Amino acid sequence: MSDTFHWCRTVFFLIPTISAYTIVLGSLSVLSSLRPAGSGSFAHGCARLWSWLILATTGVEVEVHGLERLKSKTTYIFVSNHQSIYDIPVIFWSLPCQLRIIAKESLGRIPFLGWHLRRAGHLLVDRQSPDRGRILGQASQLARDGISLIVFPEGTRSRDGQLGRFKAGSFLLALEADLPLVPVTVIGTCSVMRKGQLSVRPGHVRLVVHDPLQPRDEAGHTVTDARQLAEQVREIIGETVAKYGESCGAEL
Fold it and tell me: Is the pTM higher than 0.85?
């Protein structure tokens, strides 16, 4: 179908429909957070339903590999490449864990979506001056509550589906939190919605969950340790991206 068709479908159907999902489920999530001793599971359920609705409405099919590598009742830090804003609904719908995301602080200012992120305990970070102590404290509390984290170490979406540089900060967090780290590869979302374009297409997406890595249990982890771990994870994800020959606009 033509680019004009997909643009019209995006602007006149998908954006209004997804906005309605966000308003309704974001409101329910915020209301659930007002309970004094909530576990956050209802808010996460809202996020998963929101994700499924977006994928179903858009026409995105997700093929998941490697879920058998995860153990139930285990807290992880998931590390993923970042091709598209569709990575988030793909991951939230596909992974069988209660998740919180580490995201840029500006997302917290978006009505309904941002309110959900703040009230549900997602970690919103000022990229210009990150408060590492606060982030580690929040991440440690989430781990004690049995909640896993999802991190995008490239820091921004890829324009062509290829990997960018992995920043060491999120890996230093994983080392200091002493949590198993799981590389996750997303293939195909940049063909659904490319960065910088207001046009969404149906598509087929692969999500590959790799073997968990357990950082060495030792005191005084350094930035060098984090960079080495970042390179190890980038190599794992990069091999999977290369295996499927992914680039924006390529057919899977």
Answer: yes
